[in-house]
Design a protein that fits this description.
Number of helices: 9
Largest sheet: 7 strands, mixed
Number of strands: 7
Distance between the termini: 8 Å
Shape: globular
Radius of gyration: 16 Å
Strand order of the largest sheet: 3-2-1-4-5-7-6
């Protein structure tokens, strides 16, 4: 039986992507899936050094950072995947602060999301990766996330790490608006929170701690889709 194929999207922005939000999905998915890594510009992307420092006690994150560098320094150009959704089972947007800058108003990315969704593929995102979903529309012009329960990095978490001043907007507020008031988050900041849509092939995770459980839920969906 063929393995599920996942297109993993990293930001190309200098703000970078967040270590556990790529490392832990990779840990869960790589043994059982074919993973292709892409970014808006292709080539090298930036691993947020702050995330490396904050997760220095996470053994798998450290192993990943030290041994898997080619995954994020030799990414494929996102545009090259337009019209190729049929080759994959899912698309996954990794978080970190970068997506807030180069994946929200990115026409290639939003087109890819539409193509994946309309080809009955799974669309997933973790933490700030959910920013990529904000302006993704369907063929009828409606927002993909309209009316959907959805999550992503919360305002409280952003403020707790004093990064709200560096962001172009509050992700929680934007997701709540786009979804029609359906943003959800964990009761306690930083606690894992994953939402699996009951009506669409859509999965989102709130924060770094949600990356591994999101990947577990995604793998269940992937296995059911093959």
């Amino acid at each position: 039986m063929s393995k599920p194929s996942v297109l993993v999207v990293l930001s190309s922005h200098s703000a970078g992507w967040y270590l556990p939000e790529f490392a832990h999905p990779y840990e869960v998915l790589a043994p059982e899936c074919d993973l292709t890594i892409a970014s808006p510009k292709g080539g090298a992307t930036i691993l947020d050094p702050v995330s490396v420092q904050l997760f220095k006690d996470d053994a798998y994150c450290m192993e990943f950072a030290q041994t898997k560098e080619k995954l994020w320094t030799e990414t494929e150009n996102l545009e090259s995947f337009l019209g190729r959704a049929k080759e994959f089972t899912a698309i996954l947007y990794v978080g970190g602060f970068g997506p807030m800058f180069d994946l929200v108003d990115n026409p290639v990315s939003t087109q890819l999301i539409r193509e994946f969704y309309e080809a009955d593929k799974i669309v997933s995102a973790v933490c700030h990766g959910s920013a990529a979903l904000l302006k993704a529309t369907l063929a009828d012009g409606s927002l993909l996330v309209a009316g959907e329960k959805i999550t992503g990095f919360s305002n409280a978490e952003e403020i707790a790490v004093d990064r709200q001043k560096d962001m172009p907007f509050h992700l929680e507020t934007a997701l709540d608006r786009a979804s029609g008031g359906n943003y959800e988050k964990s009761e306690a900041a930083w606690a894992p929170h994953v939402i699996v849509s009951s009506t669409k092939k859509l999965l989102t995770g709130q924060n770094p701690g949600s990356a591994q459980p999101l990947a577990v839920e995604l793998l269940k969906k992937l296995k059911a889709s093959v």
